[in-house]
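Protein data sheet
==================
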Amino acid sequence: MGSKLRDPCPSKLPNDAAREAFYNRLSDLADFPAARRHCREELDRFFSLVDFEVEYNARVWSYLSLTDQPYAAKQIRRNP
């Protein structure tokens, strides 16, 4: 849980449009091979379904998982 992305920085943004822009930018990471390793490391920080109780965490996972969907799903299945 020590991830920089796990800090709910969107809550510090001034409005919903800015928050959506943040999430859209996060989803852009899936398009860059150089970011995939980092995204995969971030996916490793999601240990169980409890991590999804906070909307921010669930949204971050959904965008990070775009880089490697089978791996992301396997991580959650492995750590119930």
User: Anything to note?
Assistant: The longest helix spans residues 16-28.
